[in-house]
What we know:
about 110 residues, four-stranded antiparallel β-sheet, 8 strands
Amino acid sequence: SSIASTFRLAASARTLVQVMRETRARAMAEGVALDVAFDASTSNWSIRTVAGTIRRTEVLPAPVRFQALPVRARIRFASTGSADNGTIVLGTGAASRRIIVNQRGRARLS
Length: 110
């Protein structure tokens, strides 16, 4: 149903913004850069080191998809807490939610 889809969309967006915040905190605590990478074809996202070691990977619940991603399909959080500017758009049907990350590494839902 569309109510279930809308609920999944909201939950996915909340989860992903929380993952961004946790990844930023972890990058600062460990003193290393960490990426949150996205794959639109498989609807999955992952947390990885710059060397490519995957620490966590998850798939968006159907029918939620990535509708728009940063050019490099990732957000990199530096050890200083700064990040790539980027917007991730999750959507299902006509509904969508945006996650916006600024250069200070702050992630917010819009």
